Amino acid sequence: MVRSLKSFLKLDSLRALQAFQLFRFGSLLLVSVVFPRILPGKELVGFYEKLLFIGGVSTSFWVSGIINSLLPYYSSNPENKQKSIMANSVILLSLLSLVVTGILYFSSHLFIGEHYDIFKMYLLFNLFSAPAFLMEYVFLLRKNAKALVIYGIAFFILQSSALII
Fold first, then answer.
1. Which of 44, 133, 139, 160 could disulfide-link to 148, CB 3.0 to 4.6 Å?
2. Burial class (CB in 10 A: 0-12, 13-18, 19+), 146
3. Distance CA 56, CA 131 (A)
């Protein structure tokens, strides 16, 4: 019993990635609970939810597609080629993020009303969020479980604090 519990609690890269995902969604859950209590009007909560939806629709399919194709491709190549694969992935995610952010900027009049200042901050976030999604997979592919958990905790604290502040 103790041995199986020890093996269950042993931190490996996959468990660290699962913990990171818990931190990410925990941060979103915390913000979703806190926002209605601290924001002056329910309209801003709805605007935040709209931004989450726009971000999910405009980025999730291509970010997850690139990352899901990167994982087996990276592992099946020799170590000397892995660095260039990772660099190309960062460049590709950055360029696509720039294109999507530009499209959102130029089409913002279709879905953004009076909260344009908040939307400009969101565009800045959107520009850097896609390449940042790759970071947890860099830790996973390099089998650095401890760094991934530390990154997850820092991500939880910083994202929750930034959104609440």
1. 139
2. exposed
3. 14
Q: How many CB atoms lie within 10 A of CB 93?
A: 22
Q: Does residue 159 contact residue 140 with C-beta atoms inside 8 Å?
A: no
31-68 confidence digits (pLDDT tens): 888 878 877 777 877 888 888 888 888 888 899 999 99
136 touches 20 (CB < 8 A) = yes
**3-class secondary-structure state, position 165:** coil
Angle at CA 126, nearest 5°, toward 124 and 127? 65
Which is it for the CA torsion 122, 105, 127, 26, positive or negative?
positive
What gap in Å lies between CA 52 and CA 111, rounded to an integer?
13
Q: Which residue has the tokens 């971000």?
A: 55
Please state whether the predicted TM-score (pTM) of the whole model is above 0.90: no
